[in-house]
Amino acid sequence: MATELPDLIETEDQLDAILTKPDSGVLESVRELESPLVVVGAGGKMGPTLAVLAKRAAEAIGKDLQVIAASRFRNPAARDWLEGQGVETRCTDLLCRDNVSKLPETSNLLYLVGMKFGTSVDPVPTWVTNTIAPMHVSERYRGCKVVALSTGNVYPNVPIATGGCSEDQALTPHGEYANAAVARERLFQYYSRLDSQANPTVLLRLNYAHDLRYGVLTDIATKVWNGEPISLDVGYFNAIWQGDANAMCLRAFRYCESPSVAINMTSPSIYSVRVVAEQFGNLLGRTPSFSGNEQPLALISNTDRMVERLGRPLVSLETMMRWIGHWIQTGGRLLNKPTHFESRDGKY
Ligand SMILES: NC(=O)c1ccc[n+]([C@@H]2O[C@H](COP(=O)([O-])OP(=O)(O)OC[C@H]3O[C@@H](n4cnc5c(N)ncnc54)[C@H](OP(=O)(O)O)[C@@H]3O)[C@@H](O)[C@H]2O)c1
C-alpha cells in the first residue's frame, strides 16, 4: 500500500481518492461488519472520507454494506458529496432525543460527534454536545458495538522524556474543552458496562489527524510560507494521516469491549515543532521564525496499545510533509481551521 502512494497530490479529487482507498486491513474489517454501518457526526473533517472508505471497501469485496451518515450537515457540500459516493445521509440534530430515536437500527456505530472550538468564548455548546449527544446515542443504540472518537486532549501535558501518556494515565487535563471530552468518554464508559444490553465500546483517543487541508503540519507549513512566527510554547506533538486514522476506526470494531477500552490513535513518534518548521523551510525555500521557547511539557501520547491492536500508520511524516509543502506552495484549498496546537492553557 505505502509504495502505491503518489509523490505529490495536486487536486482535492486526488486527495479524496487516496483517503478513501481501502487497504487489505480495511477490507478484512469491513468483511466482518454487519449492514448497515451508521456513522454519526459524519459532516465534519473526518466523517465524509471515513464513510466513503467503508463503502469503497464493501464494493471491493462485493459486500452489500449500507453506509448511513448522520449529521446536521451545516456544510451541505459534505452531504452532496456523500450521496454522490453511494452513502445514504440523514440530516439530524442529535441533541434532540426524538430525532435520535428515528435513526436506523444498526449493530455497529461509528461516533464522530464533537465540539471544541469556541469553547473559551461560550463553553455551553461544548459541554452540551459532548455530553447530551453521547447519552442520546448510547441510549438509542443499546447492545450495539460502538467505536467512538475521543481525543488525546483528555490527558494532561507531560514531560517529553515519558514518551507520552499511555491509556492508564489519570484524565486530569486543563481547560473546559478537554474536561468535556473526559465527560464524553465517561458517558460511553457508563453505557459500555450496564448489566443489561451494554454497548461494547472502543474509545479512540486521537490526536492531530492530517489531510493537507488541516492539521498541525498544515498550520506550521502555512506559517513558514507566510513568514509568520511559529510558537514553540508547545514544542512537541504527534501527527497521523487521516487515511490511517480512518482505517484504524474501521479496524477497531473487532476490539469493542464491555467495559470499554481506550486506545490512543496517533503517530508512534513524537515530533519537534522546531525541527518540522526547519524542514518545511528547506522544502519551501523560506527561513522559519520562532516565538517563545520549548517547555518541558507537551500533549503527547504513547501508542504501544494501538500498534499491538490496530497496527502502525502507513503514511510517514516525510510523506505528509512533502504532500503538505507542495499543497501550500501551489495554493491548495485549506479549511482555515487552525488546530491551536500551541495552546498551553487548554483554551480553544
Ligand atoms: N480531526 C482531528 O484531528 C481530531 C483530533 C482529536 C480528536 N478528534 C475527534 O474526532 C472526532 C471527529 O473529528 P472531526 O475532525 O471530523 O471533527 P469535526 O470536524 O468537529 O466533526 C464532528 C461533526 O459532528 C457534527 N455534530 C456536532 N454536533 C452535532 C449534533 N448536535 N448533531 C449532529 N451532528 C453534530 C458536526 O457536523 P455538522 O454540524 O455539519 O453536522 C461536526 O462537524 C471529533 O469528535 C473529535 O473530538 C479529531
Fraction of helical residues: 25-40%
Bound molecules: NADP nicotinamide-adenine-dinucleotide phosphate
Quick check: average pLDDT?
Answer: 96
CATH superfamily of the domain at 11-209 and 241-267 and 302-313: NAD(P)-binding Rossmann-like Domain
**Which architecture name of the domain at 11-209 and 241-267 and 302-313 does CATH use?**
3-Layer(aba) Sandwich
* H-E order: HHEHEHEHEHEEHEEHEEEHEEHEEHH
**How many individual β-strands?**
15
Topology, please?
Blueprint: H1 12-19, H2 24-32, E1 37-40, H3 47-60, E2 67-71, H4 76-84, E3 88-91, H5 97-101, E4 108-111, H6 123-140, E5 145-151, E6 158-159, H7 176-192, E7 201-206, E8 209-210, H8 216-226, E9 230-231, E10 236-237, E11 240-241, H9 242-251, E12 261-265, E13 271-272, H10 273-284, E14 290-291, E15 297-298, H11 304-309, H12 317-329
Helix pairs in contact: 2-3, 2-9, 3-4, 3-9, 6-7, 8-10, 8-12, 10-12
Bound molecules: NADP nicotinamide-adenine-dinucleotide phosphate (NAP).
Can you tag this structure with a few keywords?
globular, seven-stranded parallel sheet, 348 residues, Rossmann fold, 12 helices, binds NADP nicotinamide-adenine-dinucleotide phosphate, alpha/beta, 38% helix, two-stranded antiparallel ribbon
